[in-house]
Amino acid sequence: MISDEKRRETTAELSEKVWARLCRENALVASEVWVDDARRVDFVAYRPHRPRDRSSNHATAAELESGTFTFVEVKSCMDDFTSGHGKTFEGDENWLVCPRGLADKLHEKMQLPRNCKVVCPDAAGRLRVAYDTSEFWRSARKLSTPALLLKMVTDSAQSWRTSREVFYEEAQND
Predict the structure, then answer these.
(1) Closest CA to 9 of 112, 123, 99, 113
(2) Coil, strand or helix: which one is 135?
(3) Checking DSSP bridges between strand 68-74 and strand 40-47, what pairing results, if any?
(4) Does residue 111 have a pLDDT over 90?
């Protein structure tokens, strides 16, 4: 069992890495998102679908609707994982971010969450997939795209978004 101070420190360190990575890879990122009255997700990220062969400069409704939501839960230790809180894996992609030791224990005990990538810092501190149970499952998303986007903006502790160029091709310089 780790101390409360060490647990908070580990959670903060992992959360900082998650936030930075999600902001690099997604159009909209929010923390502590309430997906319903009883459940909160540590992070939710949204990435619109962008086909490679686009002829238009504007995102279509279909491209926005087919975007990907990533739900991320951060766990610092086994006590945190078994607390009964924070295992809301209802995104198109789901990540459990934790120290490698916890990931290995969960794997040994066959307690890895279903439909989830277990992501851990490597020796250099970069987040890497350690285990992946998502390849056999489909999206677990229950809420519509507009509903989740609204929750990310209005029912979260903090949100971040890229510029509008995420939804439109970058403007051409004249």
Answers:
(1) 99
(2) helix
(3) antiparallel
(4) yes
